[in-house]
Design brief:
Number of strands: 0
Number of helices: 6
Structural class: mainly alpha
Distance between the termini: 15 Å
Helix content: over 70%
Number of domains: 1
Strand content: under 5%
Order of helices and strands: HHHHHH
Length: about 160
């Protein structure tokens, strides 16, 4: 059960990070400024993952389809948030967004579990956890005064007790 909580925390942090990156791309300079994931970025990420996990061609194609579907769904959600004026302002709306994004992430991981061997899936999850640790560290280094940016808070994840 503890592993499931870690997956949720990791997935949420990944989704929040993607959201933050996407929203920063819509910053003062307008759309297209700053960093924003593209379909080419997703393809490159899947290719790198396929090489690391030693996926065969069939697995690679399925993984790419899963990631592109996930990317497109996330783009729709980001657009809805932009149209609504940005990230949710109150706790109830943030929790609803968090729940929805965690469900999307869990659905994606379930698809991966059907594509990958058990050993590949374990390695895939380990890679996600490592990326989340790195993003957390980068966020703490770039925002040392950020509220809640303590090592203890980072260890347990955003929004978790």
């Amino acid at each position: 059960m503890k592993r499931a909580v870690n997956f949720k925390t990791i997935g949420l942090a990944l989704l929040v990070s993607l959201f933050a990156l996407n929203m920063s791309a819509q910053g003062p300079g307008g759309p297209g400024r700053g960093f924003q994931m593209t379909e080419d970025d997703i393809k490159e990420q899947v290719t790198n993952t396929a090489q690391t996990l030693k996926l065969n061609d069939e697995q690679h194609k399925k993984a790419l389809a899963v990631e592109m579907d996930f990317y497109n769904k996330m783009q729709i959600e980001f657009q809805k948030m932009r149209n609504a004026g940005g990230p949710p302002a109150n706790e109830a709306d943030r929790e609803a967004m968090r729940t929805k994004m965690m469900k999307m992430r869990d659905d994606r991981n379930a698809q991966y579990e059907g594509i990958l061997t058990p050993d590949q899936y374990k390695q895939f999850i380990d890679m996600q956890e490592q990326r989340m640790r790195e993003m957390r560290e980068q966020r703490q280094q770039s925002n040392p005064g950020e509220e809640g940016a303590t090592p203890e808070r980072a260890e347990r994840g955003r929004g978790r007790n």
